[in-house]
Amino acid sequence: MKLTIERSTLLKSLGHVQSVVERRNTIPILSNVRLQARDGVLALNATDMDLEVVKSIPASVERDGATTAPAHTLFEIVKKLPDGCQVEMSWDSERNQMTLRSGRSRFSLSCLPVEEFPTMEEGGYSHTFAVSSNDMQSLVDRTRFAISTEETRYYLNGIYLHTAVVDGTPALRAVATDGHRLAKAEIALPEGAADMPGVIVPRKTVSELRKLMEEGNADVSVSLSTSRIRFVLGSAVLTSKLIEGTYPDYEQVIPHNNDLHLEVDKKLFSDAVDRVSTVSGDKHRTIKVRIEDGSLTLSASNAEAGNAQEEVECIYSAQPLEIGFNSRYLLDIMSQIEGSAARLSMADTASPAIIRESADDTAVYVLMPVRV
To answer: Which of 39, 111, 132, 198 is the most exposed place for a label (fewest CB within 10 A)?
Structure first.
């Protein structure tokens, strides 16, 4: 194998594939990226056995071939090369060593046999459909912050992707929850997604998908079965195992009788929450919210740091209410509201609140209160 490639092109693709590789591996080959040069294309492949990324990029290929090289080391080398330079890569099959040259720099990396590199199975997908990059980003961004990190409830460690009917119209819905908050977002059901199985896409897969979508591809092709999901974004292919298990009936935790409605300017409210929570002493950065006719008062206290209070104008005409929230969770939700106004619907001090954008019902957030 011998090829020449522009440094920035190689760096961007290495950045995508090396992030899949775990820093600590008991299986040496999983620390490597597979490199295959053929027909003017360099294909980079990395996997952790549950998730696989393949990225194909144009290169000036002088001699076809394939090898594997340490993923993180290769990425760091290319990252530190001068911007705009050309990178020459060649592989010596007798010594099983790859040489990388650029300008006056020369590196030699030990390789492992390409035959040892594992690949995920192909085929077997029951449903395939296309989603615009904007729509897929919307589903991911509006829900992924609520994915649980608690390994004991492994079935919550991802986004639940499934079909739903909203006001009589079929939709593709994404849901995530960690037991303290819930995020639900939906888009119009893509053609080909009808009758698809509900699947739980792992947290790491969601993160890698979001990185790939930053390149702004027009469409994302999604193929899935009951055990795997594959995303195709231009020249990148992301294949992942799904989380086995049954996602809980999240509809049961979404209240339907919250009749105390509050509308507030999202930015003014978010900024005030951020400021007031600065003095909060507990790990949850708890804040107290007191609401009465046309006024919202945020407060926090700390025996060591002191206390803080700030008033924000709002639209509210129901009975006075005092409720506590985890300020970090509240800010996470507010950051996903794109419009200028947020709508909070509550029932009482102890019941979960519903938060949504005033002018958009395609995303709903549920936040559990905390005792203050």
So the answer is: 39
Rounded Cα distance between 235 and 36, Å, is 14
CA 14 distance to own-chain centroid: 19
Residue 217: which pLDDT band, with cuts at 50, 70 and 90? low
Kindly state the DSSP code that residue 267 receives in the 8-state scheme.
Answer: H
Please choose, from the candidates 145, 190, 178, 142, the residue with its C-alpha nearest in 3D space to the C-alpha of residue 250: 178
Residues 93-137: tens digit of each pLDDT: 888 899 999 999 999 999 999 999 998 877 789 999 999 999 999
**With 90 as the cut, is the pLDDT of residue 294 above it?**
no
CATH superfamily ID and name for 254-367: DNA Polymerase III, subunit A, domain 2 (3.10.150.10)
Pairing of strands 97-102, 51-58: unpaired
Q: What are phi and psi of 40, to 5 degrees?
A: 75, 15
CATH code, 2-116: 3.10.150.10
Distance CA 308, CA 111 (A): 59
Query: Exposed, middle or buried: residue 359 (CB in 10 Å: 0-12, 13-18, 19+)?
Result: exposed
Phi-psi region of 96 (alpha: psi -120 to 50; beta: other; left: phi over 0): left
The verdict on domain 127-252 having CATH code 3.10.150.10 is yes
CB 179 within 8 A of CB 194: no
List C-alpha distances in Å: 63 to 4, 42, 90, 235: 10, 11, 9, 22
Radius of gyration of the chain (CA): 25
Burial of 95 (0-12, 13-18, 19+ CB in 10 A): exposed
Using the structure block, give the residue that is written with the tokens 């040259």: 101
Yes or no: say if 172 and 189 are a contact pair by the CB < 8 Å rule.
yes
